[in-house]
Each structure stands twice: as C-alpha cells, then as structure tokens.
Amino acid sequence: MTVTERQQLSYIAAQAADARVNLEIETEGMTLNIGPQHPATHGTLRIVAKLDGEQVVSAEPVMGYMHRGYEKLAEVRTYPQVTTLINRIDWLGSFANEVPFILAAEQLMEVEAPPRAQWIRTILFELSRIANVTLFLGDMAVQVGAITPVFFAFRDREHVLNQIEAATGGRFHPNFDRIGGLKDDLPAGWVAETRRAMGKIRAFCDQIEELVEGNEIFQARTRGIGVIPADVGLSYGLTGANIRASGVDWDLRRDSPCGLVHDQVDWKVWTHPDGDSFARFWVRLQETREATKIVDQLLDGIPPGPIMAKVPVIIKVPAGEAHVETENPLGVMGYYVVSKGDLFPFRVKIRSASFSNVSITPWLLKGVYVPDIITILGSLYFILGDIDR
Amino acid sequence: MIGVLSELSYWQVTSIRVAAGLVAVLLVAGTLVYAHLFKMVSFMQSRLGPMEAGPYGSLQLAAEIGKFLQKEDIVPRRADRFVFKAAPFVVLTSTFLLLVVLPGGPDAWFISNDLGVYLAMAVSSVSVIGILMAGWGSASKYSLLGGLRATGQLIAYELPLLLAVVGVVIQAETMNLQGIVLAQADGEIFGWGAIGNPFILTQFVGFLIFMVAMQAELTQTPFDMPVAESELVTGYMTEYSGLRFLLFFIGEFATAGVFSAIAAVLFLGGWYVPGLDPSDNLLNVIGPLVLFGKVVLLTFVVFWVRFTFPRFREDQLQRLAWKFLVPLALANIVVTGVLKVVV
C-alpha cells in the first residue's frame, strides 16, 4: 500500500468516526486532544480521542514528544558513560535502569560483581522500586480525584530518596552502578536508617490501604474499568504489575534472576485475577510492601568483602552480543548490547516497559467514558521518559 | 421591621444593606479561602501553606487578588465574546441573590419575604446558566464538556436539595427563613426548651441529604466532575484568566459560605443563641457572628470531604441523585408530614 492510499484510508476512517450519527438525535462526533500538555499525563503524551458525547469511539496515543535518542547517543559514549544517559529513562526509579545494562556489559566482559556488590545492588534496585511505586500509589488517587494522598506519597518517598542519596550521592540519578561492582561502599549507619525508612513505607502502605483502596468511591471508579484479559495483555507485550494484575504469575526477579540476589530471600509474587484498574493498583500496593520485606531481609545478610571485582581501568568490552532483562518498577526492562571489541557499544537496543504498556491503550480505551480514560492511563502507570527514551 | 433601621432614610438603609451584602459575601469568602483552602488543607497534606505574606500568611489572599488583577484578561479568538465575558458575573449574581433572604439577627436581614426558602432555591439555579454560558462561550472542548456536566449535575441535585428543605418547611409551618429560625428558637425538645429545637435533631435525614446535595451544587469533590482537573483541566473555567477567573474563584467560596449559611439557618438554629430572648437587640450584633461561626463549621466539613474523597463519575453521581437521594428525601417528607399531623 502506498503512503497516499494509507493516508486516504485513515482519513476516511477518521471521517467515519467523526460523523458517527446517532439515529434518534443527530449528533456529531468530537475529536479531543488530551495532551501533549495536560495535567493528567505525567509528561508529554498525547491521546487523540474521538468522542461520541462522553463515550470514546477510538483513542490513539501519540508518542515521541520526548524522544531523546538514547540508543543512538549510547553508541558514541564509553560504557561507563552510558549509565548517565540511561538513568534518565525511568526517572522515578533511576538506579533500576542502570542494572540491566551493567549486567549485560558484565556478561560480555565475563566478570561477575562480588557478592557484597550484588546484595547492595539488589537493595538499591528494590529501593528505587519503592521510590517509584510509592508515587504511583498517591498519583492514582489524584487521577480519580482525591488530591491529598499524593502529598503523603511525596512525604514518605522522601525517606527512601534520602537513603538512596546517602548511599549514592544522587537523589534521582544515582549513576552508581559500575561494571564489576559499585562505585562506593555503604556509609556507616545506613543499614539501621534504611530499616527505619522501610517501617515508614509500610505505615504509608497501610495508610493508602485505608484512605484510598478501601474507599467506596475509589472502588466504584476503578473496579471493572479497563479490564485486560491475560491473553490480550500478553499479546500486547504487557509486563510488570500490569500483567500480574491480569492473573499471569510472571516475575523475572523470581523466574530468571541474573546478577541480582532475589533468590536469596523469602518473598511472594502477587497476582490478581480481575485485570481491571483496581487490580493493578492493588498488585502495586502489595508489591511495595513485598519490596520493603525484601530490603529488610537483604539488610540482615549483606556479606562482607570487596565492592568491586577486578576490571581494567579502561574498559574495552570484547566483541559479542548480550541481552539482559530485569523486572524494573514499571515492568520488564531489557538491554540488547552489541559490542565490536571497542570502547563504545556498537549498538544498544533498549526495551522499556512503558512503551508496550501504553500501546494497549487503543484496544483498551474503546467504548469507555472520558473520566475512565484518565483512570485507565493512571492505572497502567507509565513514565514518559520510559516510553520515548 | 422594628429597631434601628426603620428610623433611617431610604438611601441610608440602602447603603448599609449594600455594604453589608458585600461584607457578608466577600469577607466570608476570604475567611473560608484562608482558613480552609490555605491552612486547613495544608495541615491535612503535611505542609504549612502560605507563611510569608502577613502574620502566618494571613494576607496571602490579598497578594493573590493583586496577582490576578495584574493578569491579562484573555478572551479566546473563537469565543462568543459577550457570553464569555458575562458568565462570571451571572454566577456571582446568584450568590448575592441567595444572600437576600438570609437572616443574621432579629432585625439584621435584607428583605422580609414569606417565600424565602422558595426564592433561595430558585435563585441558586441561576448559577447553572452562568456555568453553561462559560462552557459554551469559551469555544474549548474541555470547557464545553465541563459546562454540560455541570448543568446535568446541578439540575439533578437541585431536586434533593429542594426536597430536603420541604421537611423543615413542614415542621416550621413557614417558608420565611426568619420564621424558621424563630420556630427553632421557640421549639421544645420533649418539653425542654432551654436550647430551642434545632431542626437537625428531627430532620437529620434532611440535613444529610442537604449537605450531600449542597456538596454537589458547589461542585466540590466527590461531585467535582465538571471541573475534574485531572481530565478536563479545570472544566468550564479552563479559558478564563485574570479578574474573571478570580470572580469564579470568589464565587465558588462565597457560594459555599452562603449555602452553608442557609443550612445553618434551616437546621442548626441560625443566629439564635440559647438563653437570650429572640427579639433581644443584642442579637443583631451577636447573631451574624454566631451564624458565621456555624458557617465556618459547616464549610469545614465541606472542604474536609472535598480534600479527602475521590470523585464520582458522571453516571454514578446521577444514579446517586435519582435513585438514592430523591426517594430518601420523598420518604423523609412523607414521614415528617404524617408525624406533623399525628403528633
């Protein structure tokens, strides 16, 4: 099909949606641009929604307003420099972005981080998950109209950010992971302080459970809204809490742990059979609690030893290909790194979770009401940096 | 009308009334904005709120008004200019008209109207026209959706609001708001008349319906679908800036104050202070303050709810109005009527 033909067809389809005529009263459709600048999108996502009254006839996400070209930029950066870039993909859980890339590079170089580095890596990985999902728990309430919980989320996320800052020096963009280990060891007193922070996060989860999850209006707004059956979710490539909320018991932390020590502790993968917005919220709430438990257990058993393996000062990665995926806060994040034995990666392909998570929206938003668009988008939980990279 | 006002000439009385009207709306609205929107909500959300302008941030509102007055008054190019510009005034007019029938003391009131309740309920609907004008005139899709939602919602909740009041009217045997206050002041609770008989004791169902419907009439969360800032930006107010936005803003809080005052008059005894003779001249001074105290109390509840709950979807709040509140209000009227005849 030539370009003009395709354009013509899409134009006809748009016209048909616009002119959808109600048989009793003659009504016309309306095209509503939600975004790129809109209070409900956490960045510059645009949803082109064709409406019939308050009902959505078709909705299409338009991405790319924040494309920063990280895959291309990574080709002209040395391996240690790449982490600075990829920190900014999912900016709420930055450290988690670094981990899969570093693991891929380690695989190519055939080095392994010492146990102590692996444990601290896992702790920071889970802390960035908590920092990320905590904000979701508050933000979901804002999407359905309750303003206050998000302030509690910001307040309690601070405890986690302080711990990340104390360990790495950076609150949002730690840039702390190194090939073969970590930049520094933990500061004195960090373990006890982190344990206190985990207690605060658990209290926050209880508060959210009472204030938001148990609220009848919240339940009325989210239950049965945006139901994703497991097979549809899988075919669209949904990952993370979004697919676990549809009843798929799949978590890479448990199923293919590579370089992280989640298999050393006792924890549970939560799923929910419903697959609606409420299920996605509920699963994330349970996962935050579970993450605090993981951190608590890991804090008990940090092994002694060095923090860095023996790696050359100038890192030249031998030729080869590696693909590593981890279970990041937003879903599965993968890096496919191709090296030609140079200082720079030859090609880096980033598989970020939000891109797939958002691509289900045209299927999901068909026929819902305008307020539900926001509920569904909120419950899918994407970060714009993670969509556009 | 007895007392001081009758000795003054017409223009003096009129000036006093105009000044009193402005004070009653603007001062109350300002207090509510400061006490509830700036401070109470800040404490709920673990922050301090404004602290710099004036002692404890008390002059923040003045600073905000100054800011709004400096801003450009933008009219969108495709807007219906006259309708767009007139809409905030229509909304604010409804607030001032509501005030007309509100008694603040034995003599401190604007007009004596035997159809006071009826008039109040009627003029409260005028704001719907203003909101629809704003939604339509803005030539914005968000505004239009907001305006239509607001219209549907306000019309739906007018009914339970009205029906909730009927119980009070039956019990007080008058539609005059002053008469309703006096009926509560003279009332007795099983022969004990020390605090009168505030109708909240007998009309508690009506009071609850009134408060819920009032929340919806004020388009406050959980009934703030028309302004739903997470989806419609700010609904019908989206395109407004500067002074006209300020008018909407003041209108929102002033209406909250006036509606709460009506609720206080209907259900909480209004300006009456237990222990004083209802015709005591002292009550002309204390009465408005007592009423104001009750207004602050009721608006506290309104804003507490507003900043706690998520919002209903449009169809859900319509269902709540038509399938729950209206039948409940009708049942309340029937029970009140039967008891009035029997007892």
- Determine the strand fraction of chain A and express it as a percent band: 5-15%
Radius of gyration of chain A from CA coordinates: 22 Å
* Count of structural domains of chain B: 1
What's the N-to-C terminus distance of chain B? Answer: 33 Å
Oligomer state of the chains in this structure: heterodimer
Quickly count the helices of chain B. 11
Q: Which structural class do you get from the secondary structure elements of chain A? A: alpha+beta
Q: What is the count of DSSP helices of chain A, taking H or I runs of 4+ residues?
A: 16
Query: For this structure, what is the CATH homologous superfamily of chain A?
Result: Cytochrome-c3 Hydrogenase, chain B
Largest sheet of chain A: 3 strands, antiparallel
Shape category of chain B: globular
The SSE order of chain B reads HHHHHHHHHHH
Which word captures the global form of chain A? Answer: globular
Number of DSSP-assigned strands of chain B: 0
* Strand residue content of chain B: under 5%
